[in-house]
Specification:
2 copies of one chain form a homodimer.
Chain A: H1 5-12, H2 16-24, H3 31-44, H4 50-57, E1 62-67, H5 73-85, E2 98-103, H6 108-120, E3 125-129, H7 136-151, E4 155-159, E5 168-172, H8 174-187, E6 193-197, H9 203-218, E7 228-230, H10 235-248, E8 254-257, H11 260-272, E9 282-284, E10 301-303, H12 306-317, E11 328-331, E12 334-336
Parallel strand pairs in A: 1-2, 1-3, 3-4, 4-5, 5-11, 6-7, 6-8, 8-9
Antiparallel strand pairs in A: 10-12
The structure holds a DNA duplex (30 and 30 nucleotides).
Amino acid sequence: MTVTLADVAARAQVSPATVSRVLNGNYPVAASTRERVLKAVDDLEYVLNGPASALAAATSDLVGILVNDIADPFFGIMAGAIQSEIGGPGGRAGGERLAVVCNTGGSPERELTYLTLLQRQRAAAVVLTGGAIEDPVHLAAVGNKLRKLTEAGTRVVLCGRPPTPEAIAITFDNRGGGQLLTEHLIGLGHRRLGYIAGPEERTTTRHRLEGHRAALAAAGIEDDPRWTVYGRYDRLSGYEATLELLRRDPGITAVVAANDTVALGACAALRDSGLRIPDDVSVAGFDDLPFSIDAVPALTTVRLPLAEAGARAGRIAMGREEAPHGGIATVRGELMVRGSSGGPRGA
Amino acid sequence: MTVTLADVAARAQVSPATVSRVLNGNYPVAASTRERVLKAVDDLEYVLNGPASALAAATSDLVGILVNDIADPFFGIMAGAIQSEIGGPGGRAGGERLAVVCNTGGSPERELTYLTLLQRQRAAAVVLTGGAIEDPVHLAAVGNKLRKLTEAGTRVVLCGRPPTPEAIAITFDNRGGGQLLTEHLIGLGHRRLGYIAGPEERTTTRHRLEGHRAALAAAGIEDDPRWTVYGRYDRLSGYEATLELLRRDPGITAVVAANDTVALGACAALRDSGLRIPDDVSVAGFDDLPFSIDAVPALTTVRLPLAEAGARAGRIAMGREEAPHGGIATVRGELMVRGSSGGPRGA
DNA sequence: CATTGGATAGAAAGCGCTTGCTGTGACGCT
DNA sequence: AGCGTCACAGCAAGCGCTTTCTATCCAATG
């Protein structure tokens, strides 16, 4: 029924070994033989059996990419960039690799399960994106898995994740970015800044918030606890948190959001509350996703080089680029000042 | 070095066959034996060898998802929904499956290569999303591949793609949606409507445009060829096409875009041209992606139930839902009237 | 002309798992 | 008591490929 290597070998009048070598191209095969084999492959429409060759060769051409939410462009952009570099069809690399994008939904258990699944498939490499969860138990479990994977020959790279001892990391300077943003707002004259944070247990959330607070501290502004609201990384969360901030202190003149999506929710809440942006309240986001420039007014935010970071992580995962010195590369964000931020009301 | 089934068997004092049966749970094993085996698995931190079992069982637990652009939420949303249904970790289904998201970038060759790669992996199922390319040669090649896959036991489902004889299809009524949208605009009094189409060779482009023209025809409006510009499904394309439309006929009072992303570009171009939306020119999108509601004014568009369609496709692919009658289910879009559309200038 | 060695091709031993078929006791039936 | 029936467990034959080692051929060398 299905065509096997042996069938091709028979048709080309060579041994299976030779066919295998033609297909893998890592052993001298006479040109005439090669052609005969290739012709037979073509005639028979032969398709290699992936599992069988993975078993025999003890490696597969699968590359895992773990993301929190595939529907979020933040992850989509990174995943796309990683994939373009791992040498799938159309990529520049040699062998044809299959990217396995795994959607963890931010759940620690799923993250672990997916890592096990990838280990089971003997993945060639794994790239984990997005912030980590700061639960020591989970962190240890992930670390353990990553070590196992590495030992089994799987290359592990973190992209936009805090570094761990177990893997090479391309990490974003969320702290610095947060600081930049808040400094900008303070520079405009703002003194009462609301902050909409992400989920409390995520590293990304903490780092961005730390940057924000560092900027406040540097300017000698006391951070009123009422000015910080935790939420999720989605639009609705931004909407609700903004209403909450307004309730707690109607006097805030700026809202800093955990990311652009949250910022859009904040804008909507402000508008619905009859406030103008930036005349009454300034808004800032984070990430500079493509849609941020289309908000009205366009969002002031911190641009993260998502595609570049993903591409680099992909190349490192494929061994086509050297790992950064010390195994860690920190990528800075760039402040994008746009229409959503301005001087405070009455300034 | 690596732990194998045999090691587990030895430790649990049973045969490898028994271990395999415990792990697959499709053969009676005494409770006491099972426990012993499970304990051994745990002690040894055994991880099944995916390729080996795929080879032996002649099926894998990989499910392919083909998308045009993973960074585009349109595809991200569908991919996420499909994945949540195929029973990966956290999904409701039984076995743990790995979703392989393949980014074709809209390229026909890559599409074919990925299908071959999935065939090679003996994927359990494949879901193709997004519009197809209307090149007969390519269509035939894809059809051929799909037939091969089906014959090999891979379930093939199309999601948001025009039906083909080779597969079950959940398809969007792009034509009807396009018509709805333009009817709405005509109803508001518009008579000079610019249309920014997607790439000319895509089915989605053609269907939406056909709907638009049908609405025009029904209202007795002659479609001036100058009013249609082809482009890509991205923001820049919308921006440039809008300027082009304005150049060709400054008198247009509405712009219908191929999708929401294009519509945002159109809005930007109009704004940059000093035109107000919808006072001077109305704008309409398509898809109702999450950001569309955050545009200012919010985008009038056609909502496509991306997540529902994806979920359904996923369930069908997993054999957990019956295929629709005749193998084709058509999903309609819903007109979402929002702020970006209004009566024409001077009405 | 015998010898050496490079270039190819083949034989065969697995890779680690699944599964059809074959035991083997224990149980219940007549 | 005798025998068919179950419920489990094990044996062993692959699944289709890779790769080491070996065999062969032929040109080049002394």
